[in-house]
Amino acid sequence: MLGNICDRSKFNTCSIGGPQLKSIGSDLIFDLTPYAVVGLVEVLKNYNFFKSLLEETITWIKEHRPKCICLIDYPGFNLRLAKRLADEGLSQKGGGGIKIIYYIAPQVWAWKAKRRFEMAKTLNSLGVIFPFETACFKDTSLPTSFVGHPFVQETSKSNLNYKNNNTILLLPGSREQPVRRILPTLLSTFSTINKTHPSYTAVIISSDDHIKEVILKELLKFPKELQNKISIEESSSKVNASFSLTSSGTMSLTCALAGIPGYIVYKAHPLTYLIGRSIVNISYIGIANLLLNKEMYLEFIQNTAKPSAILNEFNKDLRFGTEEMRRIALREADKLKALLSTEKENNASSWLLEHIG
Fold this sequence. Notes:
Number of helices: 15
Mean pLDDT: 89
Helix content: 40-55%
Structural class: alpha/beta
Distance between the termini: 35 Å
């Protein structure tokens, strides 16, 4: 199933990830893109795959003995990997020679806070992208550095821009399960908006061929007249919009930093949502809202994510005025950029070079 994950070592840098890692010269020993899932139910459905991947990854590490492993996000898999490397005496924390560092911390501030103590036992260093996260690890022995958010680095260029053009971004996410759950609500909402505001058009962004098929199938459920008002653009395309309806993930922060007004619309598997609500202790699900500690983007979650409710707020904001909406969004975007920035000598590249140099 996993192919020859253990037989490639000709590059100095090897990775398990996606095509972007491959494009910068890393030897992609396994493409994880098709298996990117969100939510407890979805992870359980893929349990056997991730178990096999973990075992074959351990086998590869035993054979090739890298000097340093940088774990990136994906805590369900990566924290298990770090513990196994310590338990088997491969990592430095387990008495071996492999340094283990972690970039983009698990959200211990939201749930399963006790993970931080296990992380201190298995990791050499942690680089976090939100400034408040360093405080979460102060009561551990784990060296933790705020290294800035990649979206505000000089090299980061957003393809999303604000323009007062009556275009609404519909951003259901990049993974199949969230897209299937959120997109129908976004499309129904746009259809409802369009009945009273026929001048509006919409843009959906995706570069994944499979996700595009999912989007097109969902679009076919709507009248041709509405379909003609909705375009699908590549992630690399420059897109101008005056409003956004976005899931709570990466794209919501991208829109916020671009100063595009909008709302967050989120739906999960009902069981995932019920379990999550009982164990997650946060005021908002949108990162921009969490950072600002207020609702820059109104959040329509699960049963409240109804087209009629979203239209009602949209009409209120239109009466408020598009220019005023934009002014407020820009003000909050400036606050976010200041919060997420750090000096060059303290950024992620410097942190990584410090540990692998």
